[in-house]
Design a protein that fits this description.
Helices cover 22% and strands 25% of the residues. The protein contains three helices and ten strands. The chain is globular and about 50 Å long.
């Protein structure tokens, strides 16, 4: 299990980036262990490497940060659990596609523990839940995934909507998708605490990120 770090107060986005940059460098140099950082941010928007400027609908609403993670525009804020993954893929198979799938499955399995049946939808980034109460084809986004790899060490990570202010997503087109909406665990009727979610994420980590089976020569 990687080192676990928990922040009790919202972390400014530039401070989070600075920490991850240094930790990744230390992991690459074998000076520090892998780590999972559990935190929340103050309200802000981030633009990934695929962000379309037209998807930023209210540029003066919250601070906007350009970031080199994959993906488009996302919102972060209180009530949303962010987990940054600083993991050494040199020891985890050097397979980026597999690593992204592991992160997706980690979120899906954790949500399933709370009876929230989420899934991945082809052509859409993130983790989604069906909303038959809003229409046969309707699904809402409950979690975002945006990762970056440097010298086979990952950073950035996942965000799961526990109880954020969903109206704050209105300043962007989340992940470039305008025909669906955003939801949260509480919005779906599951009043889960951050501590409960963190416990489930930790319990599911090893199974989701199982190391590749070593074959004998």
């Amino acid at each position: 299990m990687p080192e676990l770090i928990f922040s009790d107060t919202p972390i400014a986005y530039p401070d989070a980036i600075a920490f991850m940059e240094q930790r990744v460098a230390d992991i690459v140099a074998d000076k520090a262990p892998e780590c999972l950082w559990f935190l929340e941010h103050p309200p802000l928007y981030t633009a990934g490497t695929s962000a379309n400027p037209d998807d930023l609908l209210q540029s003066d609403r919250f601070p906007v940060y350009e970031t080199k993670r994959g993906g488009e525009y996302t919102y972060h804020g209180p009530g949303q659990r962010v987990v940054y993954l600083m993991l050494d893929l040199r020891k985890r198979g050097r397979d980026v596609r597999r690593f992204v799938q592991q992160a997706e499955n980690w979120v899906i399995q954790t949500l399933d523990d709370f009876n929230i049946h989420a899934h991945i939808t082809e052509g859409r980034v993130g983790v989604w839940v069906p909303r038959p109460d809003k229409g046969d084809e309707r699904e809402d986004k409950i979690a975002a995934i945006g990762l970056r790899i440097r010298r086979w060490v990952s950073f950035h990570g996942i965000s799961i909507n526990v109880e954020p202010e969903l109206e704050h997503f209105g300043g962007i087109v989340p992940c470039g998708i305008s025909d669906q909406s955003v939801t949260s665990m509480v919005d779906l009727g599951y009043p889960v605490s951050m501590a409960e979610l963190d416990k489930a994420l930790i319990e599911n980590f090893e199974a989701a990120f199982t190391l590749p089976t070593q074959t004998q020569p």
